[in-house]
C-alpha cells in the first residue's frame, strides 16, 4: 500500500482523544480508514470492507518485506560487541557481583540489588541499532524515537549521526526528512501501526528493534480484538510503548493506576455518569468509546514496565467486577487475562523489594536508583522504597551528585529537586539498583561520585 508522501504522522492513540469522544464508533463504518495528518490536511486511504485485513495481518505483511530487518547483521556483530563492552561494562559492578553483591570502598558500603540494569530486550535493541549503523555505511539512518530511555545510549546514537524523527507535540511527528533509500530504526518499545504503515509506503530499510515482550502484548491485544473484547491496558496513555500498543487495538481504555482501575470496575458493575467518565478518560480511550457497551467484555493487557503487583491487582479487580456483574458462570465469556508482565521488570522489582525488606538489618542510609528520568520501569523501582518510607533517590546520571554534597533527583511525582545528600559523613551504607535501560557503567560512575564525595568531605571514616 502506498501513500502520497504525507509528512506528518498523528499517532492514533493521541489523535483519538477528546475531540472524537462522542463520534460514532469507527467499527460500524463500512470502510477501513488509515488517516495520516499533515499540518494542513488529512490524507485518507480507504479500502472496501470486503478487503479489510486486520492490523495484525498488515503488521505481519510489513514485517515480511525484504527491506524489514529484525535479526541484526552478522557481518558487523563482532565489532559492535566490542564497542558495547567498552561503552557499558563496569569493573566495579563486576566486582560487586563477584563479592556477593556487597563491597566497602572509601568508607562507603554498597549493597547491590540481586537483579538490576540492562535487560535482555534492551541489550538486544542497542545491538541491533548499532549493527544497523555499521551495516549501512554512508546511508542516512533515522530513529522514530529514543531507542531506550537512557541518556548515554541516546547521546551515543547522536554521535553516530543517527537522526531522531522530529516530534511536533500532541503525538505528531515529522517524517519529512526520511528520504528514499534511508534506513529507519524502530526503538525497543516499538512503533505505532500508523508509523509502520507510513514507513512501508516509503522506499526505506526498516530495522525493527522492538522487544519481543512488547510484541507479546501486541499479540494479546490482537487476541482481544478477535474475541470482541475491549483491552483494558494498565499503562500510561502517552508512553511510547502504550501509544504503539493502543494503535493495534480497535477498542481500549488505559488505566494508569489502581484508582483509575477502580473507576472502570465501578462503571462495569454500577454504570454511572457516562459524560463524566468519558471526560476523565478522554485521552485514554479509543475513538467513539461508549462505556455502556465497551465495558461488557474486557481483556487485560499492560505496558511492560508497569508495577507488576499493581497489574496483578488490577486483573483481580476486573475479574471481580465482571463476576459481580455477570455471575461466576458467565464471567468467563466476559473477561480474559493473559500474562504479559515482562520477567525482567518483575525480577528487578522483586530484587529491590528484597533490599527494602533487609534495609534495617543492612543499616541502609538510603537507596540509589539509577536510570533515565523518562524511564517508566526505573520510576517504578523508586516507588518501592518510597512506599516503605526509605530515603531514596532516582538519578539519571552520575553528575546528579554534586561535589558540594547535593543530589539532584526525580521524585515519584516527577519533580526534579536538589537537596543535601550525605547526612552522616562518618559512615555511609547504601543500596543501589538500576533500571532495565541503564548500563552498568552509569552505576559505576554514580558510585564513584559518592566515593569521591565521602573522601573529600568525610575522610575514609576510619
Ligand atoms: S523491560 Fe522487558 S519489555 Fe522492556 S525491553 Fe526489557 S525485556 Fe523488553
TrEMBL record:
<comment type="pathway">
    <text>Isoprenoid biosynthesis; isopentenyl diphosphate biosynthesis via DXP pathway; isopentenyl diphosphate from 1-deoxy-D-xylulose 5-phosphate: step 6/6.</text>
</comment>
<keyword id="KW-0479">Metal-binding</keyword>
<comment type="pathway">
    <text>Isoprenoid biosynthesis; dimethylallyl diphosphate biosynthesis; dimethylallyl diphosphate from (2E)-4-hydroxy-3-methylbutenyl diphosphate: step 1/1.</text>
</comment>
<comment type="similarity">
    <text>Belongs to the IspH family.</text>
</comment>
<keyword id="KW-0560">Oxidoreductase</keyword>
<dbReference type="GO" id="GO:0051745">
    <property type="term" value="F:4-hydroxy-3-methylbut-2-enyl diphosphate reductase activity"/>
</dbReference>
<keyword id="KW-0411">Iron-sulfur</keyword>
<keyword id="KW-0408">Iron</keyword>
<dbReference type="InterPro" id="IPR003451">
    <property type="entry name" value="LytB/IspH"/>
</dbReference>
<feature type="region of interest" description="Disordered">
    <location>
        <begin position="15"/>
        <end position="34"/>
    </location>
</feature>
<dbReference type="GO" id="GO:0051539">
    <property type="term" value="F:4 iron, 4 sulfur cluster binding"/>
</dbReference>
<protein>
    <recommendedName>
        <fullName>4-hydroxy-3-methylbut-2-enyl diphosphate reductase</fullName>
        <ecNumber>1.17.7.4</ecNumber>
    </recommendedName>
</protein>
<keyword id="KW-0004">4Fe-4S</keyword>
<dbReference type="Pfam" id="PF02401">
    <property type="entry name" value="LYTB"/>
</dbReference>
<dbReference type="GO" id="GO:0046872">
    <property type="term" value="F:metal ion binding"/>
</dbReference>
Amino acid at each position: 500500500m502506498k501513500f502520497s508522501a504525507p509528512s506528518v504522522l498523528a499517532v492514533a492513540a493521541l489523535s483519538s482523544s477528546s475531540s472524537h469522544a462522542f463520534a460514532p464508533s469507527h467499527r460500524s463504518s463500512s470502510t477501513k480508514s488509515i488517516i495520516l495528518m499533515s499540518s494542513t490536511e488529512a490524507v485518507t486511504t480507504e479500502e472496501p470492507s470486503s478487503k479489510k485485513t486486520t492490523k495484525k495481518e498488515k503488521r505481519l505483511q510489513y514485517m515480511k518485506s525484504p527491506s524489514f530487518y529484525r535479526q541484526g547483521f552478522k557481518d558487523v556483530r563482532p565489532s559492535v560487541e566490542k564497542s558495547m563492552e567498552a561503552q557499558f561494562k563496569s569493573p566495579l559492578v563486576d566486582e560487586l557481583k563477584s563479592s556477593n553483591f556487597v563491597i566497602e570502598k572509601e568508607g562507603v558500603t554498597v549493597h547491590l540489588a540481586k537483579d538490576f540494569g540492562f535487560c535482555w530486550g534492551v541489550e538486544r535493541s542497542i545491538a541491533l541499532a548499532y549493527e544497523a549503523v555499521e551495516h549501512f555505511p554512508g546511508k542516512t539512518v533515522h530513529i522514530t524515537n529514543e531507542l531506550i530511555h537512557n541518556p548515554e545510549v541516546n547521546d551515543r546514537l547522536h554521535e553516530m549521526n543517527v537522526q531522531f524523527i522530529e516530534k511536533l507535540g500532541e503525538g505528531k511527528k515529522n517524517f519529512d526528512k526520511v528520504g528514499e533509500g534511508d534506513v529507519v530504526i524502530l526503538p525497543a518499545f516499538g512503533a505505532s501501526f500508523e508509523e509502520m504503515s507510513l514507513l512501508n509506503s516509503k522506499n526505506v530499510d526498516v530495522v525493527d528493534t522492538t522487544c519481543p515482550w512488547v510484541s507479546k502484548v501486541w499479540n494479546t491485544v490482537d487476541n482481544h480484538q478477535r474475541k470482541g473484547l475491549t483491552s483494558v491496558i494498565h499503562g500510561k496513555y502517552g508512553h511510547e510503548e502504550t501509544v504503539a500498543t493502543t494503535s493495534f487495538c480497535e477498542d481500549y481504555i488505559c488505566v494508569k493506576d489502581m484508582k483509575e482501575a477502580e473507576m472502570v470496575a465501578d462503571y462495569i458493575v454500577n454504570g454511572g455518569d457516562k459524560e463524566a467518565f468519558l471526560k476523565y478518560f478522554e485521552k485514554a480511550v479509543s475513538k467513539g468509546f461508549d462505556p455502556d457497551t465497551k465495558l461488557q467484555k474486557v481483556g487485560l493487557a499492560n505496558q511492560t514496565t508497569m508495577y507488576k503487583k499493581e497489574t496483578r491487582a488490577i486483573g483481580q479487580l476486573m475479574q471481580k467486577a465482571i463476576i459481580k456483574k455477570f455471575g461466576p458462570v458467565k464471567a468467563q465469556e466476559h473477561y480474559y487475562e493473559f500474562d504479559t508482565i515482562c520477567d525482567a521488570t518483575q525480577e528487578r522489582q522483586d530484587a529491590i523489594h528484597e533490599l527494602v525488606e533487609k534495609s534495617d538489618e543492612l543499616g541502609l542510609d538510603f537507596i540509589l536508583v539509577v536510570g533515565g528520568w523518562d524511564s517508566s520501569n526505573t520510576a517504578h523501582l523508586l516507588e518501592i522504597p518510597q512506599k516503605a518510607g526509605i530515603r531514596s533517590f532516582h538519578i539519571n546520571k552520575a553528575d546528579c551528585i554534586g561535589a558540594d554534597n547535593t543530589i539532584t533527583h526525580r521524585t515519584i511525582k516527577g519533580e526534579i529537586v536538589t537537596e543535601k545528600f550525605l547526612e552522616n559523613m562518618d559512615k555511609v551504607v547504601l543500596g543501589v539498583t538500576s533500571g532495565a535501560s541503564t548500563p552498568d557503567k552509569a552505576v559505576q560512575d554514580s558510585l564513584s561520585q559518592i566515593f569521591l564525595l565521602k573522601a573529600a568531605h568525610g575522610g575514609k571514616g576510619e
